[in-house]
Amino acid sequence: MMDGWDNGMGVFGWIVMTFLWVGVVALIVWAVANLFPGRAGRAESAPERPEEILDRRLARGEIDAAAYDELRAKLRAARAERV
Predict the structure, then answer these.
(1) Domain containing residue 40
(2) pLDDT tens digits, the chain, 83 residues: what are they?
(3) 3-state DSSP call for residue 80?
(4) 67 and 78 belong to one structural domain
C-alpha cells in the first residue's frame, strides 16, 4: 500500500550508515597518509646539527652564555681535529 515506506532504514539506519561511511573514508585517508608521508616526513627526518641544538638550548634558557661559549668552543675544536 505505501510502496515500501514501512520497511525502510529509518532515521537510526541513516545515522549508522553515515557514521560507517565517514569511518571508512577516514580510515582510507589515514592509511594513505601513513603510506606516503610526503614533505612533512622528509623534513622531520633531517638530522639536527650540534650548533643548532646549542643555539636552541641557549634560546630556551637551559644554559647560560658562559656555558654556551664553552660548549661552542669545544664543538669548534672537535671539528678542527676531524679535518
Answers:
(1) 1-46
(2) 456 566 677 888 889 999 999 999 999 999 998 888 776 555 556 788 999 999 999 999 999 999 999 999 999 998 888 87
(3) helix
(4) yes
